[in-house]
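Here we describe the complex-level prediction in full. Unlike the single-chain runs in Section 2.1, the two entities below were treated as one system.
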Amino acid sequence: DAKTTQPPSMDCAEGRAANLPCNHSTISGNEYVYWYRQIHSQGPQYIIHGLKNNETNEMASLIITEDRKSSTLILPHATLRDTAVYYCIVRSGRRGNAGNMLTFGGGTRLMVKP
Amino acid sequence: ETGVTQSPTHLIKTRGQQVTLRCSSQSGHNTVSWYQQALGQGPQFIFQYYREEENGRGNFPPRFSGLQFPNYSSELNVNALELDDSALYLCASSLPLLGQLNTEAFFGQGTRLTVV
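The structure predicted for the assembly as a whole is:
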């Protein structure tokens, strides 16, 4: 799976949008971009994933550049509870039981401040 | 709540001992994977079980072993514990569907193992 690069930390004001960047310049055609977050002392939580189109769900939006070499996770109205480590993961698409082998990097520690 | 439960939540063991950690996957999920997360680092993939067979392994020595049962629950066993085995051990489950290229993994809250 391709390697990802994320800034180690970011701050965001409560109520503002948090934009978390991720570089994955070696991504290949069948690799998806996944985002997970980990709130202190809890297990990672799935947020969103995408292949090449922008995606939105109730938690966040994922913007993937046209060349797919980078992406941005957007939390539209950050709250204090969004303070967490956010992991961008590139994972190959495989059929059937290829499952859960996720390669976590260091992630971005997002601090949402009042 | 993800429906993935792990036990125990905390554990203290002595170097050289053996430990068994347990995971109940979300209902119907037939794939379980285990991760080790040292303090301040991201989780590292240990191995994965699908239908009671190991079908993927990370860079961990053979003293890390596992089992998956017919009800899809799983165990992680670590023999000859070392101080560096102190970490949060996470279990994740998913239900890969034929024809679907990707599914998300649901993680439990983890077991905090301390080796002294």
